[in-house]
Amino acid sequence: MALTLQERIAEVEERVARACAASGRDRNDVKVIAVTKYVSLEMVSSVLEAGLEHIAESRWQDAEHKWKVLGNQGTWHFIGHLQTNKVKDVIGKFQYIHSLDRISLAQELHKKAIAADQEVNVFLQVNISGEDTKFGLSPEAVPGFLREIASLDHVKVIGLMTMAPLEGDPELTRPVFRGLRELRDELNQLALTPEPITELSMGMSNDFEVAIQEGATWVRLGTVLVGH
Ligand SMILES: *Cc1c(COP(=O)(O)O)cnc(C)c1O
Prior knowledge:
By secondary structure, this protein is of the alpha/beta class. It has helices at residues 5-22, 41-49, 60-70, 87-90, 103-115, 142-149, 174-190, 208-213, 223-226, and strands at residues 31-35, 54-57, 75-78, 96-100, 120-125, 155-161, 199-201, 218-221. The structure holds pyridoxal-5'-phosphate. Pyridoxal 5'-phosphate (PLP)-binding protein, which is involved in PLP homeostasis.
């Protein structure tokens, strides 16, 4: 029999807690984002009622209706590839953008954030696995990228984001997640940002426990939490 939403949330919570315990981490250092791109407005509403605060969508076209109805009830994350001409739609609505991957996008985010009189929290998307099907900066490009956007003071880089290849055995994703953590630590040694970069957005339904063991601070969960 299919599990209810409440049961799925409880099961995910147990798995997150176990992964934290297994790696000596504090449960409060890992936040769960419900990825609702596959599901209906009604499901997003149920997720919020069930007490999950963080909602993620990957396309404005799919998110628009949900956000217009439920926007003020949660904290919204934009996790998909963001076209520059869509920045005007998401600024002021999505508190976190996980997919900053090019200078032109940083400039547009800065411009629209100034116009909206806010700061936007961003994660740099990094292609650790090197798959050419994935968006993201190469790890080697990140220091230069941070230097180039340093003057865009309305764009606040709080973390790094990556996606691992889909593997039959989640253990095989570990080097990707470890690579993102090591990159974060190296960047902080270079002190390229006004404040240290603390956040790691990594881990999806298939691999979130490995990501947590490697230091994820945000896991993005669709299928396992809200269904597909
Ligand atoms: C769809 C998506 C997710 C969630 O995927 P699941 O495997 O269903 O958990 C997480 N992150 C990004 C960037 C996505 O596009």
